[in-house]
């Protein structure tokens, strides 16, 4: 991961430098910095590095990326897919939104991705369905653009959904820290 980062960027941004210190400690971290400062990339790189070192993958979702914004294809390409290609990783990525077909939802339950990209509403629906079983292995949650929902009913709903996810994970494995990363 380090080699890819150093060949792709001049160096880490201040947001990334301070973010990585907090993230690697395993606690919740809020990275507050201007757009384009590398907040989301900081969280994804930590997660990708951790997953690439994991002896077993494919057992369930390990990282959940939640974004309240629908049009994030550029961000996902730059912050997730580019690093995965750069390190030639076989880490699997799945997308679950309101537009996901029933066939794709069933396929995800049978073969869960290592990283799940979703919306607050779809995460809620997953936790309220038989699909919740693929989330018991979650190690980290990245919530992007949290300011877009923080002061609304949607933000309150997301907070409760994240608490439900943490409760599910802790019930599955009492040793999981339930750390989250918010950008």
Outline the structure in words.
The protein has 183 residues and is α/β, with parallel strands linked by helices. It is built from 7 helices and 6 strands. The protein has a 6-stranded parallel beta sheet. The radius of gyration is 16 Å and the shape is globular. The two termini are 21 Å apart. Mean pLDDT is 85; it is low at 174-178.
Radius of gyration: 16 Å
What class do helices, strands and sheet pairing give? alpha/beta
* Portion in strands: 5-15%
Q: Between the first and last Cα atoms, what is the distance in angstroms?
A: 21 Å
What is the number of helical segments per DSSP (H or I, 4+ residues)? 7
Q: How do the strands of the widest beta sheet line up side by side?
A: 1-6-5-2-4-3
Indicate the percent of residues in helices: 40-55%
Q: What is the residue-averaged pLDDT?
A: 85
Strand elements, count? 6
Helix and strand string, N-terminal first? HHEHEHEHEHEHE
Query: Ranges with pLDDT <50 over ≥5 residues?
Result: 174-178
The quaternary state of the protein chains shown equals single chain
Report the major sheet.
6 strands, parallel
Net shape:
globular
Present the secondary structure layout.
Layout: H1 2-8, H2 14-24, E1 29-30, H3 39-53, E2 63-66, H4 73-86, E3 93-96, H5 102-110, E4 115-118, H6 120-127, E5 140-143, H7 153-172, E6 180-182
Parallel strand pairs: 1-6, 2-4, 2-5, 3-4, 5-6
Task: Provide a compact summary of the structure.
With 183 residues, the chain is an alpha/beta fold. Strands 1-6-5-2-4-3 form a six-stranded parallel beta sheet. Helix 7 links the parallel strand 5 and strand 6.
